[in-house]
Amino acid sequence: MRQVSTTGRRIGVVAAGLMLMAGTAWAQAPATPGPGRTLRVATSVDASTLDPHANNALFTFLVVSQVYEPLVHRGDDLKLAPGLATRWEQVEPTRWRFHLREGVRFHGGETLTADDVVFSIGRARAPTSNYGIFVDTVTGAEASGPLAVDVTTRVPDSSLPDKLTRVLIMSRSWSEANRAERPQNFSQREEMFTARNTNGTGPYVIRRRDVDSRTVFGRHEAWWGAAADVARGNVTDYQHIILASDATRVAALLSGEVDMVHVVPAQDVERIRRQPNLRVLEGQENRTVFLGMNQDAEELAGSDARGRNPFRDLRVRQAVAHAIDMNAIRTRTLRGQAVPTGSMWTQFVNGWSQDTDRRLPYDRDAARRLLTEAGYPNGFSVPLDCPVGTYDEACQAVAAQLAQVGIRVSLNLLPNAQFTPRLLRRESVFYALSWGVPTFDALYTLRSIMQSRGAAGVASWNAGGWSNARFDELVNAVEREPDAERRRALIREAHAIHNDDLGHIPLYHMVIPWAVRQGVTVTHRADNQFQVRDIRVE
């Protein structure tokens, strides 16, 4: 399947199917054109779409963020830096003003204007957007000058600049010309022009795209960042290669077919370390793996517990938690590449507390007793959905451990492009999901994963339907509270309510090693992202 990206006008689509900081430290260096340099990176999962507002997923953002840009950039030090906006200020408690760069052009030649920013923020707020969590407090955006945009919020929102690091800016005229005024409805498998074609302001242009195989980027020679001297890299040609098989991905690195592996299997870390021409970069990711359970259906689909839903009973959820030996999974399955946790977010996140980072102890006898008390002395069967790529081995281990207490799991390993829409359609009754916090603030997870779906609205990823009225009140109070310490206290109270009721079952924080050949300089980031613009290849 060959995929061609657009310039500023509609073209024919030549494709079939839909398509804290660890590691190397940098010394600030200017961007230098120099000779052409090619970077080949292998990872495990492809972007599910090229629409920048349709699928809020790590691997999708990893691709589209090379092409599109936000108002506010998050650098390799994870701090905020100017992006398409040179500066911003909170001019009123519920109004932020962003001042735009002059002379920025989209790949199709259109000049960036305040109208494009207003359009993009509105698009991210649309019902089909999967980026609603980043604009959850926004009530509107308006041009306050040719190169200034005011964003209004329903409550004072000091974290808005952090949120807008994930809202990528599109050309209004290009989107309207291609009937893409709203985002692709990804969960309903909608086909749309923006799912296959791009027109951003970023440092790279997509030259060719073979879905689930390879995306080839070329440098955007008119990128504003070259003249502004904001990037350190020298890559002119970038190949984003999808190798779902762990063994194939590692073999490609060992043979020199790729320069970097973005997801290194835990079992291969030591072997790569022993290679004199390779380096392993590692650190804990700002991402947590947890189990979600359907708790709103009267009957659990796919289970032999006819007419009942075991997960609606707290004792069953407690039994699941007691049955999982996370320390064994960490040492045997993940070979140390995990941090067991009872928290829904990592210590990198504002709102983390040791008080709410406590797991129920591993205790099979307690699990069996709880199942019996709940009316399931012989256990029950249930399907477990899990995406292929970065934590499927942990899912297999969890399934085996649950079987030891009578919960018979049929593991359903799915490609990410199938797993995510299924989850968003709320078809999964028992699932594993990893969740990062790109805003580095707990409200992101409180609202998107944990708050009742009716309260969270289009921002919700609460696929299991857990709901607690007091919890919802606390999330809304967190949103409104201006005092930092009082706000953190509210977060702790909400988190404790969720953990006591086991709305979800946290498993572990991810540790994601990368590996590179000698001569490649890249910074390992806790958000598991990289910007090709800042990578150097010698």
Walk me through the structure.
With 538 residues, this protein is an alpha+beta fold. The protein has 16 helices and 23 strands. Helix 8 (314-323) packs antiparallel against helix 10 (364-373) and helix 15 packs antiparallel against helix 16 (484-501).
Brief summary of the model shown:
The protein has 538 residues and is of the alpha+beta class. The protein has 16 helices and 23 strands.
Strand content: 15-25%
Q: How would a textbook summarize the main sheet?
A: 7 strands, mixed
Q: Could you say which overall geometry the principal axes of the C-alpha atoms support?
A: globular
By DSSP (H or I, 4+ residues per run), the number of helices equals 16
Strands side by side in the biggest sheet: 9-10-11-2-12-20-13
Query: What class do helices, strands and sheet pairing give?
Result: alpha+beta
The tally of strands reads 23
Task: List unreliable stretches of 5+ residues.
Answer: 1-34
Fraction of residues in helix: 25-40%
Q: Compute the separation of the termini in Å.
A: 32 Å
Overall residue-averaged pLDDT value? 92
Rg, Cα atoms, Å: 23 Å
What characteristics describe this protein?
538 residues, alpha+beta, 7-stranded mixed β-sheet, 16 helices, 23 strands, 26% helix, globular, disordered N terminus
